[in-house]
Structures are given as C-alpha cells and as structure tokens.
Amino acid sequence: MARNGVPVIDMLRDDGLAAEIVNACEEWGIFRILNHGVPPELLAEMKTVAAELFNLPEQIKRRTVSSESGKGYITFNPSSPYLEGFSIDDVSSPDDFCDRLEASPHQREIIYKYIKSIRDLAGLVGRKLMEGFGVAGDLFDGWNFQMRFNKYHFCPESVGSCGVFLHSDPSFLTILHDDDDVSGLQVVDKDSGELTPVDPVPGTIAVNVGDIAKAWSNGRFCNVKHRVWCLEPKTRYSIVLFALGPKDKKVEAPPELVDSEHPRLYVPIDINEYRNVRSAKRLHTGDTLELFRAASSDETFLDF
Fold first, then answer.
1. By C-alpha distance, which of 69, 148, 50 is closest to 107?
2. Fold of 8-250
3. Taking Cα atoms as reference points, which of 196, 188, 195, 198 lies closest to residue 236?
4. pLDDT digit string (tens) for 199-210?
5. Edge to edge, what strands does the sheet with 195-197 contain?
6. What residues does the Fe2OG dioxygenase domain cover (predicted)?
7. Domain spans, the chain
8. What's the pTM value of the predicted model, to 2 decimals?
C-alpha cells in the first residue's frame, strides 16, 4: 500500500526543521512547505503574468526558442502533446527573456520580485539541508538556477492521458509553485512503487529532489519519479525554479557524507555533461546516475 500523502513542513517550526527536511528528502524526495516566505499576492501576480505571456502571439513567443534541450520556448510535441513552456535559463539575468517577449514594466517588476523571493527560499532550503547533515556553508552559493513557466492545455479529449511523462529531474532541487485549482502531479512512492497524488494545498509550495541531489547526498536522497496526469479538462499552470548546479565546479558528496560505512557512490559530476548524457541515452528516470558510479562502489563505468 502507498503511504498516506507527502510530508507538509512548516518552515516556521522552532526545532528540528533541518532534520525534518532531510528526512523528507530521504523518504519521499518531495514535500510541501508552509510559511515559506513568498507573499501570496506575489504568487497570484506571477501566475497572472505567466498566463499573459502564454497569450502572446506565437511569433513573439518563438523569439525565446533555444537550440539546447530543456531551454527556451517549447511547444506541443508527441511526448508532451498538451504542454507549452518558457524558461529563463539564468535567473540572475532575466532581462533578455523580458526583452524578447516585450514584457511590460509591470510584468518585469513581478518577474524580478518573484525571482528574488523564490531564489531566497531555495537558498534557505539549501542551508537547512547542509545543517541537517552537519555541513557548514551555503549550499547553492554560486549555482545556476533556471525558471520555467508551464501551461498544460488540458481539454475533454486529454482527460486520462499524460501531460508530462514519468521522469526524475536532472537538477538538484525543484521549487514548484503549482496550480492551486488543478490537480495532476503524481509521484512514485519509493517503498510501494505506487503512484501517489500530490494534490494542491493552497498557500504551500512543493519541493522535490532531483538526480544531482541524490549524487550529492551520496545516495541518501530519493530522486523522486513523477509525472503530470490530466484528471479534468482545465488549463493548468505551474512555475518552477530549478537549482541546476555550480557554475564553475563539479558536484560531489561532501566529505562529511563519506565514510567506511558509506563509501563514495558517484564520481564528481559536471552538470552539463550529466544532462547531455541523460538526453543522449534517453534515460529520464534516474538511471543516468548509474553511468557515474565510482569504480570502488560498482563495476559500472562511463561509456559514452
């Protein structure tokens, strides 16, 4: 039997917050957070701006198309026939994205405010992960972050079909502002293998663990597999911040997480190399990590 729902964590709790977050990453790979510090009016305004951008003419939206997989504007394709999306591929420099879409001063203001607020939240979660393992420092200092806007064009014909196929995220952490009104996110319970709904909880933000976090945690974290399923014929929006990885170094488990009982499982990982291998091998549910196993922990070696 699947467990009874993903954890909901109050970020204002006085004691044990870091341990609770670490435990949620290990046991579920996803959790919801209350009292996250992002103003509710900003969440609502950001959703409105996203809807406005998606309503732009097709020729304007296509100005943000990228030749790189997972970046820029995407539109409907056979694997995601109802999904449309934009991305700001470096949240420290959103001006080009706004310029290409001819964003209004008000839209720019909301995007900039939202980026700062959600990036601050990611930083707090990262520091709590470090604290939970007794590691000093700011985990995401100097990291690349990407923000993606998603619109699911669900209709009567799409009910009972897939909006996004089952996958794990190739990033470290995902901060998800999902749709308060439309369900559809489902995750795989690592204990039972069953799909568990992650229903909307107004006022909360979801956080899920990606492949890179599993490597960083030396295998402790669950890089949760998830999908979006169409349950009703309603348009669904989500706004996602991805903590991708460091700008100028590889990701590896800190020394505090490696010992005789927990030998190093993975070689240091270059984020761009990892994403390229994952795309080339078409391994979208975490299996790419097996190609980055340390020789001492497994006989699997890089072959690409």
1. 50
2. Jelly Rolls (2.60.120)
3. 198
4. 989 889 999 999
5. 162-167, 226-229, 185-188, 195-197
6. 143-245
7. 8-250
8. 0.93
